[in-house]
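This follows on from our talk about sequence and fold. Please put the record directly below this note.
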Amino acid sequence: MYVTISSHNMAEVEGIRDKLVGASNKYVVDLIFDSIVNEWGLRIHHTPIKSDSHKIRLAERHFTYVEEYATQRHISLTLAANLILNDYFSFRISTNYATKEPQITPTLTKNNPQLHKVNDADTNKSEVAQITPSQPETKPVTEDKPKSLRGAALLQNIKN
């Protein structure tokens, strides 16, 4: 199956091809799709080289991946291949495109913010903080208070 790679994506492919001695455009496109499908996180630093759009034969091993992508979005295979390549090139600064994970920042608990030593079995012997999920403080509303005080207590909880 042949797909037409847009001039923007082809400029990026040409830039990578320039870095790889003896590589063809098809080889570079196959390498990029292999990197995406197999989650290698491959990045080759390059400078785009101006180019026109080219027809490139898509390898059988990538056809199902591009076909699934196109089917999910109800678009053509050529557009799907160009979107996948464009997405890959737009994350050029990132070192690991395929396994991008959200950042989670740990918080120290109010009960035990002090640091403690790691066991001797651990090789780095660094100090680490005890991390536990923080839970919001809730004040129970009692029935023996008048309704106006219960409303004030609820508003106080919302402000905190």
